[in-house]
Design brief:
This protein is of the alpha/beta class. It folds into 3 domains: 200 residues, Rossmann fold; 87 residues, NAD(P)-binding Rossmann-like Domain (Rossmann fold, 3-Layer(aba) Sandwich); 134 residues, Rossmann fold (3-Layer(aba) Sandwich). Helices cover 44% and strands 14% of the residues. The chain has 17 helices and 14 strands. The strands form 3 sheets. It has a 6-stranded parallel beta sheet with strand order 3-2-1-4-5-6, with helices on both faces. Strands 11-10-9-12-13-14 form a 6-stranded parallel beta sheet. β10, α14 and β11 form a beta-alpha-beta unit. α8 crosses α11. The radius of gyration is 24 Å and the shape is elongated. The chain starts with a strand and ends with a strand.
């Protein structure tokens, strides 16, 4: 089966490599010639564990191709996936200009039945915009060509995207006809060997499912952070509370870990877009708006703890462990580390940072305003405090004795609650967590 995927960002490249891995003939399309040239040389523009080997293997074996023009493959493919970005506008709404541009290009090029599948995260109603754009281009050409639109939202977690794609909890597909369903069933048949669920539904429901899923997960995070902040005030332990409510089968423990807020390219953007969609239809998503408000406030909790413990931060050295918004990625988009570091710098502190993979991305954000350490211990030398922002595995078991000797101060702010306070106190270190 031959398919095209337009957009070689996180979603497009992972999807293309995984479809190729199960035998599909995939052409990845991107207007960025530099990116396509790099991919042809085997250079992966994003960090995702295992992706480089997957891309290299399938390109070498002739199942994965890269081009800058959809015209190069349009006559051979049955499906064109749209996986371009939908960045948030100033009002929080999703910018659909890239999606519409791909739809128009599709309409300008197709010569036989083909399905346009939206894999980008798009608000409800996007399928109508896509269909209208394609129909307009066909009218300009003076031709009548049968086509369909479908929605196939992605549910990939950065750092575990390949596993998520190859063994997903579910695959959601919005279609309008039995013919389109049959084509999508053939594409996903290799994955059915893993006995996961393919859920077919109408397109608006598929579009809404993506936003609703991310909004629910974001809601659990903000809810637990709000509970954790109250726990500190009343003397309760948020970790114990999490266990107490998580054992209820109706609640469960996932996404109930207190911390310094969520970030990344999905949750912040999708929560805002869902709230904007509600307002556009005259309905206020009060819970969703509160989720974002709590998260924005939570992102600065590490800064507030440092300020309350150290007082005036001028001349103080603060070491930051972890910059990416989560482990196993170099993604700095909406990362909680960014507002914390910016506030520290504004207060006159000196900031030393270390992240296993995100240093290059961090340089695009902070430039030379911070010091980039070669490892976690180097970052902490002469530091008045160390703040953990990202729970990379290599941060889980530090030598507290080494830190106690190399630091100027003794404060450890655990923004992800991964340390045992008693262990630090035995070495003369002061511990501050979230909701503890």
């Amino acid at each position: 089966m031959k398919i095209a995927i337009v957009g070689t960002g996180y979603v497009g490249l992972v999807s293309g490599a995984c479809f190729a891995e199960v035998g599909a003939d995939v052409t990845c399309v991107d207007v960025d010639k530099t990116k396509i040239d790099r991919l042809r040389r085997g250079e992966i523009p994003i960090y995702e564990p295992g992706l480089d080997a997957l891309v290299t293997r399938n390109a070498t074996e002739g199942r994965l191709h890269f081009t800058t023009s959809l015209a190069d493959c349009i006559d051979d493919v049955e499906l064109v996936f749209c996986a371009v970005g939908t960045p948030p506008g100033e009002d929080g709404s999703a910018d659909l200009s890239y999606v519409e541009a791909v739809a128009r290009n599709f309409g300008q090029l197709i010569n036989r039945y083909c399905i346009f599948v939206t894999k980008s995260t798009v608000p409800v109603g996007t399928s109508r915009i896509v269909r209208t754009a394609i129909e307009e281009e066909l009218r300009k050409r003076g031709v009548e060509i049968d086509f369909e639109v479908a929605s196939n939202p992605e549910f990939l977690k950065e750092g575990a995207a390949i596993k998520d794609f190859m063994s997903p909890d579910r695959v959601v597909i919005g279609i309008e006809s039995r013919r389109a369903q049959s084509v999508m069933e053939r594409l996903y048949r290799p994955f059915l060997l893993n006995n996961f669920r393919v859920i077919f539904m109408d397109i608006p429901s598929a579009e809404m499912t993506k936003y609703a899923a991310n909004a629910m997960l974001a809601t659990r995070i903000s809810f637990m952070n709000d509970i954790a902040n109250l726990c500190e005030l009343v003397g309760a332990d948020a970790g114990m509370v999490r266990k107490g409510i998580g054992t209820d089968a109706r609640i469960g423990t996932k996404f109930l870990y207190p911390g310094c807020g969520y970030g990344g390219s999905c949750f912040p953007k999708d929560v805002r877009a869902l709230a904007t969609t509600g307002r556009a239809h005259g309905y206020r998503m009060a819970i969703i708006e509160a989720v974002e408000e709590v998260n924005e406030r939570q992102k600065e909790i590490v800064y507030r703890k440092l300020r309350s413990a150290l007082g005036d931060l001028r001349g103080k050295k603060i070491a930051i462990w972890g910059l990416a918004f989560k482990p196993e990625t170099d993604d700095m988009r909406c990362a909680p580390s960014v507002p914390v570091i910016n506030r520290l710098l504004a207060d006159g502190a000196t900031v030393s940072v270390y992240d296993p993979v995100a240093a290059d991305e961090a340089r695009k954000v902070f430039g030379d305003t911070v010091t980039y350490a070669c490892d976690m211990y180097d970052a902490a030398v002469d530091a008045d405090a160390v703040a953990l922002m990202t729970e990379w595995k290599q941060f889980r078991m530090p030598s507290w004795r080494v830190l106690a000797k190399s630091m100027n101060g003794n404060l450890i702010v655990d923004g992800r609650n991964i340390y045992e306070p008693a262990e630090l106190r035995e070495e003369g270190l002061r511990y501050m967590g979230i909701g503890r």
